[in-house]
Write the structure tokens for this entry.
Amino acid sequence: MQHEPRIAASILAADFSCLGEEVRAISGAGADWLHVDVMDGHFVPNLTVGAGVVAALRPHDALPFDVHLMVSPVDPLIEPFAEAGADSITVHAEAGAHLHRTLQRIRRCDKRAGVALNPATPADAVEPVLGEIDLVLAMTVNPGFGGQKFIESQLGKIAALRALIDASGRAIDLSVDGGIDESTAGLAASAGADVLVAGSASFAGSRAEYPGNIARLRAAAEAGRSAALGERSGPRAVGASAS
Ligand code: DX5
Ligand code: ZN
């Protein structure tokens, strides 16, 4: 079931010279989750932060920390990020040969486990591990950098993932990451996403602008979700409410 949209603000677009203040500001602005992009310069062509930064940020806010590991090999980093204070840990399906084992390792740490899919990876890749996960992260850019353009051809895959999750009957969040702004948030939500990861659009402008940024993203996502739910339930729901 598609839930009310949540906004996961990616710190990749924050001011790294004062991350603690940025985290408090975006949390106060209404973000639901803090998305932490971890890049290794190997799986993706960029380097960002390690578990030490998550541990340093943890005391600054109680927001759920949604850690996105763009790292290979990833297994040795599961426990360090769990101990640092991650609430969910998402790994890429493409990052290793033993995805199922990696997900079990995350769950053994009592953390929510997620699988991220690059744009070229089909929705079906998550089907064999639906019983091991709490979150699917559909990439709508090729991972490695913020500020890229949303790849619209991924909308069909988001809809396919929504159908897979709903058919499983499991409580799995469907998150979309990359190029999310006011217009693409609505597209992603109408395709079935219930978590929107936004870096550039969350941290745009001065801190005084953050609440407006988050509110506009949420409104756009809510409008997209309402439209989609209306379409999916369609005439049957109209008939039911009339009787
Ligand atoms: C890209 C990261 C994204 C990125 C999104 O590899 O996974 O989370 O921060 O940034 P925007 O919202 O600027 O596309
Ligand atoms: Zn990310």
The longest helix spans residues 210-242. The chain has seven helices and eight strands. Residues 237-243 have pLDDT under 50 and may be disordered. The first strand starts at residue 6 and ends at 10.
